[in-house]
Amino acid sequence: MIKQNVDIVNFNSLYEILEEVKKNLPFNITRYENKKEFINKKKNFQESLAITSSSKKDLDEKNLLILNDVPISLTVLIELINIKLIKLKFYNQSNINIQGYELDLNSKIFSKNNINLKLTEKEIEIILYLNIKKDKQSVQDLQKNIWGYSANLETHTVETHIYRLRKKITNKFDNKNFIMSDNEGYFIE
């Protein structure tokens, strides 16, 4: 399981406390001396939670935990951080844009222009995998990485799933070219 990130901004005493117990924390911690350093060094604000002791107007509220009421027990603090991280993960999974479509991992809805298509877990895995892998993926690659099958196992599971997924997308969105294939494998353009 990948740990989420918590960034401590201009709050050295909190960082030192968490640093002492970090091996027991369900998240990673990073210290930033000030907001300017945080903004300059942080590449993706969407995937982490920033904790500070004062309001930061140019930081997104969903990614921010402001601790004004200190002292606070460590147990309560960890609970607050975990709740905020759960909300952040839920929010980040709500809208993934793929080739003009929106994929909501929470509701398993694939949509475009107010047209919705309910997907299965495996269909979502296929779309996400092909979207992340910008190059063409062979049947053997998909067998191994989506289903965990041996690459030399004779099965038509991949072809069947992709055929059904393509059919659903074509019927709902009239798009025959969302998942493409050629001699090298499957891909999303």
Describe what is shown at a glance.
Helix 1 links the parallel strand 1 (4-9) and strand 2 (27-32).
If you had to describe this structure to a student in words, what would you say it looks like?
The protein has 189 residues and is α/β, with parallel strands linked by helices. It folds into two domains: 4-92; 96-188, Winged helix-like DNA-binding domain superfamily/Winged helix DNA-binding domain (Arc Repressor Mutant, subunit A), CATH 1.10.10. Helices cover 39% and strands 23% of the residues. The protein has six helices and ten strands; from the N terminus they run βαβαββαββββαααββ. It has helices at residues 12-20, 35-41, 74-92, 121-132, 139-147, 157-173, and strands at 4-9, 27-32, 48-52, 64-66, 96-98, 101-104, 109-112, 115-118, 179-182, 185-188. Strands 2-1-3-4 form a four-stranded parallel β-sheet. Strands 5-6-7-8 form a four-stranded antiparallel β-sheet, with helices on one face. The longest helix has 19 residues, at 74-92. The radius of gyration is 21 Å and the shape is elongated. The protein starts with a strand and ends with a strand.
Main features:
189 residues; alpha/beta; Arc Repressor Mutant, subunit A; 4-stranded parallel β-sheet; 4-stranded antiparallel β-sheet; 6 helices; 10 strands; 23% strand; elongated
| CATH structural fold name of the largest domain | Arc Repressor Mutant, subunit A
Quick check: average pLDDT?
Answer: 86
Number of helices: 6
Which CATH top level class of the largest domain fits?
A: Mainly Alpha
Strand residue content = 15-25%
Basic shape: elongated
Count of β-strands? 10
Q: Estimate the helix proportion, in percent.
A: 25-40%
Class by helix and strand content?
Answer: alpha/beta
Give the name of the CATH superfamily of the largest domain.
Answer: Winged helix-like DNA-binding domain superfamily/Winged helix DNA-binding domain
The CATH architecture of the largest domain comes to Orthogonal Bundle
Whole-angstrom Rg? 21 Å
Tell me the number of structural domains.
2
- Going across the biggest sheet, name each strand in turn: 2-1-3-4
Give the helices and strands as they follow along the chain: EHEHEEHEEEEHHHEE
